[in-house]
Amino acid sequence: MSDAFYFEPEKILRNGLGRAGVIHTPHGDIKTPTFAVVGTRGFVRSMPMEKLRELNAQAMLSNGYHLRRQADEISTAGGLAAWSGWDGPTITDSGGFQIMSLGSGLGKVVSMNKKDAGTGRQTPHEKRLAKITEDGVYFTDPWDGQEEFMGPEESMRVQHKIGADIMMAFDELTSIGDSYEYNMEAMERTHRWAERCLMEHKKLGGAQALYGVLQGGHYEDLRRETAKILGGMDFDGFGLGGAFLKEDLGKILEWVAEELPFAKPRHLLGLSRPDDIFVGAEFGCDTFDCVAPTREARHGRIYTLDGDVNLRKGIWANVEEPLDEGCDCGTCREGWTRGKLRVLLKSQDRDEKERYFELASVHNVRFIVRLTEQMRESILEGEFEGFRDGFLKRYYSSIAWQYGRM
RNA sequence: GUGAGUGUAGCUCAGUUGGUUAGAGCACUUGAUUGUGGUCCAAGAGGUCGUGGGUUCAAUUCCCAUCACUCACC
């Protein structure tokens, strides 16, 4: 769409699909692969902006759904970068996913666990709070009960006002338990919505890039078809969406990588577990985002090279060991130990808990950002597979779950 | 010293007109968390109901004594 935005592959893996590169945006370069931090409402939960810069985050992903009512304010302020204080590259999600999540009765829509595939943890379509039509989605805001509508055009207008460097097309995601027929229906609707997003985007103009979002469930023909069709449209890049079973992720990403235009960037939506990111990078995903590093940090889970530790567990009381030996995050450099951080986690004092949230979030986000930095280096140096195998073996060996199996 | 009140889970307390395995919140333990409305969600463990007697088929509950604490008054 714009000369200000383009992807420059630097080094390609032996499989011809994975790569390291640079995404050039109006607000700076994104060296890939990388993890984009999630700042849904324009800031990362529990994390001051200076901490975010300090841990070397390269891009922030916000959400068109959550910011829809502030879009004018953001526009007036000069766009998301100026408004949020994060002056680097920014991404917005369309809001489609969030509306569908509400539509599931606030239940689980995205899961990588087979046992969630049944109807038990999913709200039947007819009972959902969001009603999907050809025009778009009618939904009820669960907080104030207001009835609203969002379709491709509405999402584009909101995202244009927010003004992130990269926008996502309005898509309809499906759940693991959805049938082949429903997946096809949703995918075809997503294609029609994609065309409308592109039209509205052209009408609105500007220097923002727009990614088309792929659905298709775990069905090879649907995934390849949507990759071909959306890949043939005038998008600047692609978002890879949907609910993935862990065991299917690699296959699905390989199928779409074989069909999509190589020289356009791809964002894997919503994943950040080390094994998932390695699989993503192997099959051509350039950017990632996920709420897990910060959410899990708040819930006590701390990432380490030897697997995660849960600071809620009593065994960490008074243990004066570093969170993760050799970690370069701000929290570890300040000398916080598992025992000392646990005291804040367990504290009933509001300020101490907030302090814990920040310290733990800094650590986990830095852990994932650093992992993608090292992944990039390994690709550039032609040592991706070795780095991957070594990292995953160490990370998962001390835990019951093994690489490739959950 | 006198009068009154309170003793039930680690903590704060419900409850029982006497009746199966005595509850809640918090804390604790374990699990969960993947395109975030923040202290979330799920499960679990934990009690000789202050102590000793009495009445009763049956007492945490009623009665007596006793201990501890609290308050008030001398």
Mean residue pLDDT: 90
So, the CATH homologous superfamily of the largest domain?
Queuine tRNA-ribosyltransferase-like
| CATH class group of the largest domain | Alpha Beta
Examine the secondary-structure arrangement and name the CATH architecture of the largest domain: Alpha-Beta Barrel
Radius of gyration: 21 Å
Q: Fill in the CATH topology of the largest domain.
A: TIM Barrel
Name the structural class: alpha/beta
Unreliable residue runs: 399-406
Q: For the largest beta sheet, what order do the strands appear in spatially?
A: 4-15-14-13-12-11-7-6-5
Taking the sheet with the most strands, its summary is: 9 strands, parallel
Helical content (DSSP H or I, runs of 4+): 25-40%
Shape: globular
Total DSSP E strands: 17
Helix segment tally: 14
Q: Classify the beta-strand content into a percent band.
A: 15-25%
End-to-end separation in angstroms reads 41 Å
Describe this structure in words.
The radius of gyration is 21 Å and the shape is globular. Strand 9 (137-140) and strand 10 form a beta hairpin. The chain has helices spanning 49-54, 71-77, 80-84, 96-103, 152-162, 180-204, 220-231, 246-259, 274-282, 292-298, 330-333, 338-346, 350-380, 384-397, and strands at 6-12, 19-25, 28-32, 34-35, 37-38, 60-63, 90-93, 131-132, 137-140, 147-150, 166-168, 209-214, 237-240, 266-268, 287-288, 301-302, 309-310. The chain folds into 2 domains: 6-290, TIM Barrel (Alpha-Beta Barrel); 297-397, no CATH class. The chain is α/β, with parallel strands linked by helices and 406 residues long. Helix content is 40%, strand content 16%. The protein has 14 helices and 17 strands. The strands form 4 sheets. A 9-stranded parallel beta sheet has the order 4-15-14-13-12-11-7-6-5. It has a 3-stranded antiparallel beta sheet with strand order 1-2-3. Strands 8-9-10 form a 3-stranded antiparallel beta sheet. Helix 12 (338-346) packs across helix 13 (350-380). The model is unreliable at 399-406 (pLDDT under 50). The longest helix is centred in the C-terminal third of the chain and has 31 residues, at 350-380. It binds one RNA strand of 74 nucleotides through residues 38, 40-41, 45-46, 61, 63, 66, 93-98, 101, 110-113, 142-143, 168, 171, 173, 213, 239, 241, 243-244, 267-273, 276, 289-292, 294-296, 298-299, 301, 310, 312-314, 346, 348, 350, 353-354, 357.
